[in-house]
Design a protein that fits this description.
Strand content: under 5%
Number of helices: 3
Low-confidence stretches: none
Shape: elongated
Largest sheet: none
Number of strands: 0
Distance between the termini: 51 Å
Mean pLDDT: 87
Amino acid sequence: MSALPYLAAGWMLLVGMHGLVTSRNAVHAVGCLTVVQSGTYVLLLAVGYRRGGTAPYFTDIPAGTPVVDPVAQALTLTDVVVGAALTALLLALVLQTAKRHGTTDPDALTGLRG
């Protein structure tokens, strides 16, 4: 098994986390969070991959044939749907914050401090 998918997933997670930490714009932070989520997609698919495996349809393949893990595929699909909903929600919140306060810089939002 190749380590390339794991390295790619780790690189995407690190790049996205670096962007989240150094972001000075809320829209940029949402984009970086999307990159982190993409890293989780790659990681989940890499965990469920089997070399020479076929799709997990058991009606027409002989017994003993290796198949890829269907649970990892289902988790990845769920992650994609939740990620899309979260990205839409966060962008809507950023848009409303920009309308109300006139900025998307988190440090400039003084009206939100406790």
